[in-house]
Amino acid sequence: MTSRNAxxxxxxxxxxxxxxxxxxxxxxYTGAWFYLAGKLEAxxxxxxxxxxxxxxxxxxxxxxxxxxxFRIGLYCGSIFYEDVRQGFSIRAGAFRSAAQVYQPQHLVGxxxxxxxxELPVSSPLTIDWEVLRAxxxxxxxxxxxxxSEARRLTVALEETPSEVLATAExxxxxxxxxxxxxxxxxxxxxxxxxxxxxxSLPSMDAQFAATLKQGETVLTGxxxxxxxxxxxxxxxxxxxxxxxASIAASGPISIGADGxxxxxxxxxxxxxxxxxxxxxxxxxxxxxxxxxxRPLIMGLAQKPMELRINNGRMMLGFIPLGExxxx
Length: 327
Fold this sequence. Notes:
This protein is α+β, with helices and mostly antiparallel strands. About 25% of the residues lie in helices and about 50% in strands.
């Protein structure tokens, strides 16, 4: 009996030690999590404070670290950013970010709409969405990868938000650093414009892929404009949703110190007759010009065409298309 009691006591003591070790580990983990949460909130406040200078303003409403026990991320009740010098500002709803505690370099985030956007080139806009999420692989000094996705986008004037200017079913943007260059790609699905925008277009799809040469150096240098940069447009495709009509472009582009664009793009047209019909129907001022050169354009469309851009002046073959203003 004594031996049996002694054996039971040893098992009980081991159980107590084991349970104590678990509780101690949980307490240590909890303490570490809340310590990191405090550091995250302090870093968020510091970052916002640093942004509030030199003509810029930023705000994260009531920043709070959330996600215990297996995630950690920042929550803001609303977000705001303004650059007075550039005439740009954006205000949006709640912001949520999170990373797994065992993979902190992989960050995901969501933003609630709508967003109020002010640009120097247009009236204030209201942009809304059903879902807007993004993810990034954090590294020093810049994230190595970034991806974003938006579903059911709507764009309207801020003063008349019920009057929609444009909609898109899906939008995506992806970027990564590769050998010092910045590679980007994106798409829009079922993009449509309404008469409120001044032009009514059928549902369109768009996608692009481009490379900014030495993009890592450009980004770390905090450029204020696009001047003096070289791009490689790998693909830009505009197509009518549900039809074969499309226009594709590819080639090198550079922007001089004066903001003038230069480049040589290869243009490929599919179902040119349908595209000309759409342009004529939605841009009556171009209808007469298009009718006058329709046979020539139809002939050129049988093979890829070259679009030359020289100091902003565009020439399709020997047909002048106008001028791009300095960027």
